[in-house]
Each structure stands twice: as structure tokens, then as C-alpha cells.
Design goal:
single chain, 132 residues, alpha+beta, two-stranded antiparallel ribbon, 59% helix
Amino acid sequence: MKEKILKFMEGRYGGDELSRFGMVLAIILTILSGFFRKPWLNTIAFFFVLYFGIFRVFSKNTTKRYGERLKYLNATEPLRKFFRQQSLKIKNKSKYKYLKCPKCSKKMKVPKGKGKIKITCPYCKENFIKKT
């Protein structure tokens, strides 16, 4: 059975980030349509399930699907970068303190628990003293 599925999927695009986004959005819309009793939300959810869940995964036009994926990744890059930075800040909260330069307002991290230290901004070379 596994060999038949692998043979069927040979040459097809398969799932990616855009497909997962569409499927999650479809689930959310289905749940919302139940809460708000809006049947048109179910229709939109069905479209996402049909397009992202079936069409994109089983498509043999891999170059077009890859291009769609790149457009999606480029469009969502600022949001994904923001969440990566926030998760790093949370993860390193016990080791580092995040400060803004008083001159150029760029953010930088300094070691936590060192007392008052002289900090040189790596961007504008401004010197200032802060407690860490």
C-alpha cells in the first residue's frame, strides 16, 4: 500500500507552508461559521480546503506551486522575522538585557547582571552608561 501511495505522489508537489496556512485558515473559518451562524464562511472554508488541501498538494505543476510558495514566504517574511526575534528575546531573557541606543534608537543586547557598564553602540559608536 505504501508503495502505491509513493508511486501516486511521484512528480507531485506535496504539502508546504502555504498549504498548511490554507488548511489552518479553513479550520478557523469553519469554527467561526459555527459560532456566528454565517454559511458563507463555510463556503470560503471549503474553497481553502479544496484549493490548498487538495489542488496544491496533488498538483504536478511544481514550478508554479514553488513560485506561489516563494511569493507567500516573501510576503510573510516581516511577520515571521518579528516572531523569531520575540521568541529569541524570551529565550534569552535571563542572559541578556535589550536596550535602545539614545542617539540612533537601534536595539542591542547586553549581558544581564553586570551592574553599571559603559556601552558603545555598534551602529553609531555612541558611548553611554546603563545598568544591566
